DNA sequence: AGCACGCCGACT
DNA sequence: GTCGGCGTGCTC
């Protein structure tokens, strides 16, 4: 009888099972666990243990050496178990019966500049397509996909979840027909099974999908495109907290696939690390005028009025959803906070409620301050709903709609709203970050960015690049096909009124001086418990083990101290070899590590 | 996933 | 006291 250490998929622990058969590392087997059957990856053969072992039921798949290398990297780099890393991958169905190879031919003819970009991306293993909104990146992607298919390889087109909209699907299907599959979290189980089958059969050659599409069982992946590569939603916020954009580079290297990162505003760190091709201006050679203003004032309103008169459309970006971010007592200055989270609750007038944007706890709007009993409140910072209401009063004849997480709850609702906008049934669209993302937004005459200083001033080393990129992305929505105008509400016009290259030059110096990525890595280690003392003790044990190291930036209460009824403490690191420092001290039962964090709350 | 265990509030 | 709700931890 042989004994094997097996990492159960999606669990932190390994278990020992026995069998008469010989298995090797990477074999995926079915094993009994309590009264059900689960899957696990064989790690190695071990000595007969003290305890009783159950028998391995069957072998269903094997990860080859390349994939095991990737799984081990994910496990090591993101401080997760092999089972959690392997659990990310989708397994193929059993009967792979390959269809005959068919070549494709698209009708696309690249412009000389696009061809130059194509040639550049062709000759580099990993590179960035740094192209302005509307500069014609998609045609280049399609040509790269065409070439990949004709080499009888598969192409993966990654997009942020929110950007997976019908338009990109339509464009890809127009060129590659039934060879295209769309993959994201909202695709039904049945459709997912169908895609897995067709992928195994060799019928599907192009997958356009969200970050999880990276883990599909490709036969021979030849190309990975990461569009909107700057987008934070490539980072998973559940264990393992991987970044699909960074992993795409690893997959490319390990599986011998070309990697293209595309964006109008590439991350400073990526622009530093990888070669890029600059695709400037818009395809239609339009011009864009940029204005700055300190307040949401008459200038903005007169511009909106002007566009309404010309029957042209406006989009307004607001960093806050709901009505106002906070309800603050005029007397004692306390914000009304969520009872489960240390977070001020947001006002939702339509539901006559306060809502916590972190745990969704809802409570009625109080008449008196819960802290001091005073009856007078101040409302802090305007949100999407408040702006919509104010504009409706000012422009009663205009059609004004809201576009944020409260409205956009499903893909069909996004599609419907954007279709109406495209048909010019909506004059003004007011929205949050979502407005800046994706491809499906039609051309508008005026883009307005409100209150961006709120983003710029948030306490996080990425705040500057996020604010700059967001302003540029919202700007990009105007003037793609016709000349457009942009208004940015800020007290820092000089920060925004420059090219991305100028911003990059300053930012990279800033990061170098202060020692931030890409010159170092960062890691956040979190300790949380419903009992404050336990969370704190766990953190202190860890901090004491680390000792005095220059990589240890600080530790203490998390910026949101209480979340979903749990107290949170965190330890922050930056440095060149964080794994070497953290691994000897971390107890993964009580600590959650977040490598290359995008959120510091 | 499902089941046992234990902590804490409501009450025969 | 005890009953039971539910959050937490364990399953080789």
UniProtKB/TrEMBL annotation:
<dbReference type="InterPro" id="IPR014001">
    <property type="entry name" value="Helicase_ATP-bd"/>
</dbReference>
<feature type="binding site">
    <location>
        <position position="359"/>
    </location>
    <ligand>
        <name>Zn(2+) 2</name>
    </ligand>
</feature>
<dbReference type="InterPro" id="IPR040498">
    <property type="entry name" value="PriA_CRR"/>
</dbReference>
<keyword id="KW-0413">Isomerase</keyword>
<comment type="similarity">
    <text>Belongs to the helicase family. PriA subfamily.</text>
</comment>
<dbReference type="Pfam" id="PF18319">
    <property type="entry name" value="Zn_ribbon_PriA"/>
</dbReference>
<dbReference type="InterPro" id="IPR041236">
    <property type="entry name" value="PriA_C"/>
</dbReference>
<dbReference type="InterPro" id="IPR027417">
    <property type="entry name" value="P-loop_NTPase"/>
</dbReference>
<comment type="subunit">
    <text>Component of the replication restart primosome.</text>
</comment>
<comment type="function">
    <text>Initiates the restart of stalled replication forks, which reloads the replicative helicase on sites other than the origin of replication. Recognizes and binds to abandoned replication forks and remodels them to uncover a helicase loading site. Promotes assembly of the primosome at these replication forks.</text>
</comment>
<dbReference type="InterPro" id="IPR005259">
    <property type="entry name" value="PriA"/>
</dbReference>
<feature type="binding site">
    <location>
        <position position="369"/>
    </location>
    <ligand>
        <name>Zn(2+) 1</name>
    </ligand>
</feature>
<feature type="domain" description="Helicase ATP-binding">
    <location>
        <begin position="118"/>
        <end position="284"/>
    </location>
</feature>
<keyword id="KW-0639">Primosome</keyword>
<keyword id="KW-0238">DNA-binding</keyword>
<keyword id="KW-0862">Zinc</keyword>
<feature type="binding site">
    <location>
        <position position="372"/>
    </location>
    <ligand>
        <name>Zn(2+) 1</name>
    </ligand>
</feature>
<keyword id="KW-0547">Nucleotide-binding</keyword>
<dbReference type="Pfam" id="PF17764">
    <property type="entry name" value="PriA_3primeBD"/>
</dbReference>
<dbReference type="InterPro" id="IPR001650">
    <property type="entry name" value="Helicase_C-like"/>
</dbReference>
<feature type="binding site">
    <location>
        <position position="332"/>
    </location>
    <ligand>
        <name>Zn(2+) 1</name>
    </ligand>
</feature>
<keyword id="KW-0347">Helicase</keyword>
<dbReference type="InterPro" id="IPR041222">
    <property type="entry name" value="PriA_3primeBD"/>
</dbReference>
<keyword id="KW-0235">DNA replication</keyword>
<protein>
    <recommendedName>
        <fullName>Replication restart protein PriA</fullName>
        <ecNumber>5.6.2.4</ecNumber>
    </recommendedName>
</protein>
<dbReference type="Pfam" id="PF00270">
    <property type="entry name" value="DEAD"/>
</dbReference>
<keyword id="KW-0067">ATP-binding</keyword>
<keyword id="KW-0378">Hydrolase</keyword>
<dbReference type="InterPro" id="IPR011545">
    <property type="entry name" value="DEAD/DEAH_box_helicase_dom"/>
</dbReference>
<dbReference type="InterPro" id="IPR042115">
    <property type="entry name" value="PriA_3primeBD_sf"/>
</dbReference>
<dbReference type="Pfam" id="PF18074">
    <property type="entry name" value="PriA_C"/>
</dbReference>
<dbReference type="Pfam" id="PF00271">
    <property type="entry name" value="Helicase_C"/>
</dbReference>
<feature type="binding site">
    <location>
        <position position="341"/>
    </location>
    <ligand>
        <name>Zn(2+) 2</name>
    </ligand>
</feature>
<feature type="domain" description="Helicase C-terminal">
    <location>
        <begin position="360"/>
        <end position="540"/>
    </location>
</feature>
<feature type="binding site">
    <location>
        <position position="329"/>
    </location>
    <ligand>
        <name>Zn(2+) 1</name>
    </ligand>
</feature>
<keyword id="KW-0479">Metal-binding</keyword>
<feature type="binding site">
    <location>
        <position position="338"/>
    </location>
    <ligand>
        <name>Zn(2+) 2</name>
    </ligand>
</feature>
<feature type="binding site">
    <location>
        <position position="356"/>
    </location>
    <ligand>
        <name>Zn(2+) 2</name>
    </ligand>
</feature>
